[in-house]
Amino acid sequence: MTHLKTLIVYGDCQAEATARVLEKDPVVSKRARVIYSRSYEHPVEQRQDVDPADVSRCAILCEQHDPAGFRQRDQLPAGCHIVKFPALDCNLLWPFSCPNPYNEPEPPVFPFGRFPYGDRVIVEALDKGLPAEEILDYYLHHYQEYKIDLDHLLRLETARIRNREATCHVKMADGILERFTTERLFWAINHPTNALLEELIEQLLYYCGPADPQLVDADAGATLSAYFGPQGPLGAASIPIHPEVAKHFGLGWYDPDQLFRTWDGTMYSYQQYFAAMIDRAVAFRAMRRPA
């Protein structure tokens, strides 16, 4: 293994998924030793630097763009080839998304909790102390009272994701905007499906070409299918999309009868998902209420 190039992938969970796919790909695994470097603080796993010896031998750094950047950058060899790529997310499909303050981490199995993705409409109702049944009814049947301007959101999202990748080699924004109505590109706001992850990896390998032209022969789609199945490395949980949002954007792939998987593996219908999330949040609120 010592003769292989060292390829470091730095970034969030999407970068980790990318590294896992590259490790499994038969072309890449014969050409490079892939190492993942986490960019964020994990609630359970301690963040660790890459072994300085590995950094000193790094031939390719695939660096996800963020304000901090790869924190061992000063240890890279002078000839290291750096490819910058953007993080991928989509507010369009989940316009009410927010952190869930009523979600309780349950390490080590559920370090991020069972419902880490919150919904602003539901959170605001929980903050008011409303009962679970009333919150669910309001969410399901009173969209006209809490709806937002989705066309304005589209304009904001277009500017945001294009601006974010302005300094990156890999460009994903226009592809997302062109494809999101005809293909499911995200399981959750920041968890891309195989369709989008394949495009990201193929672009990364193309821009790695100057350091190793043979890397472009890798077949990311085949590797994703063979080793990760249709859910892919980031499909452990999926978040329901509001039917009015699907209607507004004309999502051709949207299925109102789809079941949604939570982190504990439970499959819920649209209504069951939000009922379970609200019930758990109400129980969490009651447990935390001062005596």
Write the layout of secondary structure elements.
Elements (H helix, E strand, L loop, with lengths): L4 E7 L1 H12 L1 H6 E7 L13 H5 L1 E7 L16 E5 L11 E3 L17 E3 H8 L4 H10 L1 H4 L3 H15 L8 H7 L6 E3 L2 E2 L1 H14 L12 H9 L14 H7 L10 E2 L5 E2 L1 H19 L3
Parallel strand pairs: 1-2, 1-3, 3-4
Antiparallel strand pairs: 5-6, 7-8, 9-10
Keywords, separated by commas or semicolons:
2 domains; single chain; two-stranded antiparallel ribbon; alpha/beta; four-stranded parallel β-sheet; 40% helix; 291 residues; Rossmann fold
CATH topology name of the largest domain: Rossmann fold
Query: Would you list the SSEs in sequence order as H and E?
Result: EHHEHEEEEHHHHHEEHHHEEH
Strands of the widest sheet, in order across it, are 2-1-3-4
Q: Which radius of gyration do the C-alpha atoms yield?
A: 21 Å
Q: Quote the average pLDDT.
A: 94
